[in-house]
Amino acid sequence: MSALLRYDRTLIEGEAPMIGVDEAGRGALAGPVVAAAVGVVPAFYEGVWCRERGLRFRDSKTIGETEREELGAVLREAAADRLLWLGIGVGAVEEIGRCNILGATRLAMQRALEALAEQAGGDVRLCRDDADTAGVAGAVKVPARIWVDGRPLRPFPYRHEAIVRGDAKSLLIAMASVAAKTARDRTMRELGGRFSGYGFDQHKGYAVQRHFEALNANGPCEVHRTRFLRKWKACRNSPQ
Q: Residue 15's domain is classified under what CATH number?
């Protein structure tokens, strides 16, 4: 049994569904921030899929691109087969500029959770952060427990628990990290086709030398985050 699976099993409380949430692209210079939510019921951890496939998942930053893409496809297939629930949410470049990256990340995570709840079709209830659950009738679906990688989200509409370095501790959050990263990578490959001079399909919009060289040659395009270009400007203006 992996350490990530053991960690999740220690957090099980009754029959409440559990959801792991993570994001990708928060530190990039271009493109959206993308969040994913992966949800399961406690029985998932005893199932064949978890034993045979789930244990392959870990923090997406520690997985090579080829394996990560394969695992992303495995997750999507599992969601299609109703073995788990999967929701993806996006914070657009315009929202990053308007709300800053933290606000856009919260929006992406909220949308990922709501997409998951919609996919679950009533099997998952998200508890509003300001909700009073005392005295709720037993027939009402038990609220899902939400685990978010990092620190608490404030403000945020849904009650959640923050786990620092959760993608290295929790199997569900690790799965969400893979889902978010592969979803964002697909978007950046698409943007690489639309904006062919920037190499988005290779560096995915992050602050690497090739990206700086493309910016020097072409200037920013419409999917660059204006507030994030200080790194590029600092490199461009630094003495050689």
A: 3.30.420.10
Domain count within the chain: 1
For each of the chain's 240 residues, which pLDDT tens digit applies?
A: 689 999 999 999 999 999 999 999 999 999 999 999 999 999 999 999 999 999 899 989 899 999 999 999 999 999 999 999 999 999 999 999 999 999 999 999 999 999 999 999 989 999 997 765 544 444 346 899 999 999 999 999 999 999 999 999 999 999 999 999 999 999 999 999 999 999 999 999 999 999 999 999 999 999 999 999 987 888 776 544
240 is a domain residue: no
What is the rounded distance in angstroms from the CA atom of residue 108 to the CA atom of residue 102? 10
Q: Which domain holds residue 201?
A: 3-235
CA dihedral 223, 102, 149, 107 (to 10 degrees): -70
Which among 110, 117, 85, 114 has a CA at the least distance from the CA of 33?
A: 110
User: From CA 141, how far away is CA 156, in angstroms rounded?
Assistant: 21
Residues in CB range of 72: below 8 A, 6 or more apart: 178, 179, 181, 182, 183
- Say if 169 falls within a structural domain: yes
Q: Which residues neighbour 183 within 8 Å (Cβ) at sequence distance 6 or greater?
A: 24, 34, 36, 72, 88
Give domain status of residue 29, yes or no: yes
